[in-house]
Amino acid sequence: MTAHTRAEIARIIDHTLLKPEATGVQVADLVAEAARLNCYSVCVSPSQLPVEVPEGLHVATVVGFPSGAVKPEIKAAEAARAVSDGAEEVDMVINIALAKEKRFDDLEAEIRAVREACPAPVVLKVIIESAALDDDAIVAACRASEAAGADFVKTSTGFHPAGGASVHAVKLMADTVGGRLGVKASGGIRNAKDAVAMVEAGATRLGLSSSAAVLDGLTD
């Protein structure tokens, strides 16, 4: 296993606060902590936008969160509003039923609708809720994401009862996108060992709410 430094891991962290009861004060604290830890971004609910951040810290938000079970045009409108409110990155939740029912053309169309609503340079990450899918559906959802123009595929919301990120899912996703897209591991990663395992499996971004605890387990 390759050694990963605290600084290296910090620069791929989306420091995240998506609890529905989160307050503006808590978001401000999140920003301050992310800056102190030298994280890549903060990820907050769209209702918290706009968020003031120091130079070098990016702003991400979520769309269709956490269920994904809304119409594509609603997700697209939500994404467009988020970008107008200052989001640089959008993490959208797929309609999981489309993947379960193997309606991957419809899934691709949904993702494309959001992509068109937040074109580059906005970064689009597609949350496929991997713990709720079998391997074939994970692969197909990743392919649909790539075909629709996404920049990343992401394992999980962290809110689904099936669970969060797994090394198996991250490796499968990374193998499927072959470096053409990023892979974000999110959900249940609470210590340095788990974070490094995800990176070793192919994750290029980490969604963490326990960023300080994870980084405390690493050395420079």
From TrEMBL:
BP-aspect Gene Ontology terms: 2-deoxyribose 1-phosphate catabolic process; carbohydrate catabolic process; deoxyribonucleotide catabolic process
Superkingdom in the source lineage: Bacteria
Active site residues per record: D91 (proton donor/acceptor), K154 (schiff-base intermediate with acetaldehyde), K184 (proton donor/acceptor)
Compartment(s): Cytoplasm
Pathway of action: Carbohydrate degradation; 2-deoxy-D-ribose 1-phosphate degradation; D-glyceraldehyde 3-phosphate and acetaldehyde from 2-deoxy-alpha-D-ribose 1-phosphate: step 2/2
UniProt keyword annotation of Cytoplasm present: yes
PANTHER family found in the cross-reference section: DEOXYRIBOSE-PHOSPHATE ALDOLASE
Name of the protein in question: Deoxyribose-phosphate aldolase
Organism: Corynebacterium meridianum
